[in-house]
Amino acid sequence: PFFGNMGVSYAGNEKSLTFSSGFIYVNLVSNNGSLIIGLKNNLVKFFALNNFGTRQSKGFGSFSISKIDNTKQDFPFDLFNYNFSIPSNGNQDLDDFQNLFKKNEWFNKSIRSGLNEIRGRENYPKLYFKSLLFEYVNKKLKKQWDKKTIKKHFLETRQESECEKYEDDIVCNAVKQINQKELEFIDYRDLLGLSSKEKWGNDFTLTKTEAKFNNTTLKWEKITNNPDMVRFMSPIRFKIIKSDNNFQIFIHFDLSSLKAIEDTVLWIENDAEGFPLLIPNDFDYDAFFDYIINKVEINDRFIINGDHKDFSMMKNTIIGIFNQLKNNLSL
User: How many CB atoms lie within 10 A of CB 32?
Assistant: First the structure.
């Protein structure tokens, strides 16, 4: 499926989703023969490592080269260190693709934000799965999770009540960021894609813009003439290849999206009050994946209160994906 803007001829320039049920044929035309040869030599790799259109980091707009000049082209599996599959109903219909992207999104959420799902109206069945990035930052890197830093600054009273309720050292020992040139605490979640605006529950919102250091006041401050932080995609990219009975999903890290924000300090703001958080430039994505695949017991991270059919499907899907990732690494 391809998802993207449909152009100025469409009212409001809406985004639209479209499917290709067969091959797409492309002719390369140029008077420069060397250019054509160069393109043909690199097309397989280029299409394998890139998606197109909107939501490409989530796997939309995934195309691969089948043939060049009627010569079959093999998919370059060796470019990817991680892969898993999701079963297909074989019809390549809307239900098939909805199931694919729903399950892939569960996996993606398990990595970055975690899952906090509520179903129904009676007794409110709940599923909770703590972010694996949080697990890595806290247990492996032994650093303070950025949400704790944010809460310490804006929601300290709420954080203190959570400390009393849960008696959790991670909550109770959170330290406030000091606005000085060398910053102690880091923004980790946005390494998996920047969300420039966030809403926590019904009563708390955040905006993120770029900060600069003022050599006069010796403090970081918001860049007022550049209020909008440029969004960037998660460097974790999903390449989806359809086969008869399943969708194969290959993962690679496209770090080019991070170049624009290397050594960037974000200004985290709520109601005109803010503080700085640094985006690190030395985060090791392979080390992160190695940790969550090989060192974390995924089954133990689910907290489920009440019964709902979605919850068993979520749990089985996420556990199954991590089992595949681990087994495929050993092949």
Answer: 9
Q: What is the radius of gyration, based on Cα positions, of the chain?
A: 23
CA–CA–CA angle 88, 94, 98 (5° rounding): 65
Interatomic CA distance for residues 237 and 141, integer angstroms? 23
Task: Reduce the DSSP state of residue 72 to 3 states and report it.
Answer: strand
Whole-number Å distance between alpha carbons of 147 and 168: 15
Instruction: Read off the pLDDT band of 234 (50, 70, 90).
Output: confident
Per-residue pLDDT tens over the stretch 162-211: 887 776 777 788 899 999 999 999 999 988 888 788 888 788 899 898 89
Here the tokens at position 204 are 């708390």
Contacts of 77-80 spanning 24+ positions with Cβ under 8 A: 77/250, 79/45, 79/48, 79/49, 79/250, 79/252, 80/239, 80/250, 80/251, 80/252
Calculate the dihedral angle through the C-alpha atoms of 301, 303, 308, 312, rounding to the nearest 10 degrees.
20
Structure tokens at 239: 């390449």
Question: Look-up: residue for tokens 């899952």?
Answer: 115
Give pLDDT tens digits for 75-101.
999 999 999 999 998 887 888 889 999
Residue holding tokens 């972010």?
131
Q: Give the DSSP H/E element, type plus range, for residue 182.
A: none
> Rounded to the nearest 10 degrees, how much is the dihedral formed by the CA atoms of 118, 119, 125, 126?
-20
Instruction: Decide: helix, strand or coil at residue 13.
Output: helix
- Secondary structure percentages of the chain, helix, strand, coil, to 5: 35, 25, 40
CB atoms within 10 A of CB 6: 13
Q: How many CA atoms lie within 13 A of 136 on its CB side?
A: 22
Question: Cα(254)–Cα(243) distance, rounded to whole angstroms?
Answer: 24
Contact, 159 vs 171, CB < 8 A?
yes
DSSP state of 186: B
Question: pTM for this one?
Answer: 0.86
Indicate the length of the chain as a whole number: 331
